[in-house]
Amino acid sequence: MKCPFCHHLEDRVVDSRLAKEGEVIRRRRECLNCKRRVTTYERFDEVLPMVIKKDGRREAYDRRKVLAGLRKACEKRSISGATIESVADHIEKKLQEQGESEIPSQPIGELIMVELHQLDHVAYVRFASVYREFQDIKQFSETVKTLDQTRPKR
Questions:
Q1: How many CA atoms lie within 13 A of 110 on its CB side?
Q2: Measured distance CA(26)–CA(28) in Å, rounded
Q3: Which residues, other chains included, contact 150 with Cβ-Cβ below 8 Å and sequence gap of 6+?
Q4: What is the mean pLDDT for each group of 10 consecutive residues in the chain (154 residues)?
Q5: Which of 20, 43, 53, 124 has the most CB atoms at less than 10 Å from its CB?
Q6: pTM, whole model, 2 decimals?
Q7: Residue 54 phi, psi dihedral angles, 5° rounding
């Protein structure tokens, strides 16, 4: 693997350990030329479905798009980056379990909504407002009202 600092092609693995419940191997590598260390992550090359967009176009599933939507919804909330990554992992796992080669974008959005509903109600409403294309305040208030109905009684 090419060193990101000096671009030398040879390194040695200093440390390896399992990460993300054994689904990833984290490796610390040391460049044999400049002696700087980097961390790499090794995982299976997962086959995720093609996404069928609303207009019928097909594109490869893009984790970055899911993460961008989650980050935007969770912006200025007390939700860690690790938690957001974990939500994205959970969504991908569910998509893989379905075993489909193609999936409409709608079920992906619904999976995100389910995860955000459990994680943070403000993030859920933010995401829902964009995903469901709210046009007026009435749609916001209806969504908040459903959250009030699902909140456990104290």
A1: 7
A2: 7
A3: 117
A4: 94 92 90 96 82 94 95 95 94 90 94 93 90 83 77 49
A5: 124
A6: 0.66
A7: -55, -35
- Encoded tokens for 17: 């350990």
Between CA 84 and CA 71 the distance in angstroms is: 7
Structure tokens given for 149: 């109905």
The whole-angstrom separation of Cα 66 and Cα 74 is 12
Contact 37, 7 (CB under 8 A): no
The strand ranges marked E within the chain are 11-19, 24-31, 37-42, 50-52, 58-60, 102-104
> Minimal CA–CA distance to 145: which of 56, 45, 103, 137?
137
Q: What is the CA radius of gyration of the chain?
A: 20
The rounded distance, in Å, linking the Cα atoms of 48 and 26 is 22
Two tokens, residue 132: 């469901």
- Write the CA distances from 59 to 41, 51, 54, integer angstroms: 25, 5, 11
Structure tokens at 59: 């594109």
CB 105 within 8 A of CB 56: no
Q: How far is CA 84 from the centre of its chain?
A: 6
The encoded tokens of residue 102 equal 């193609």
The pLDDT assigned to 20 comes to 77
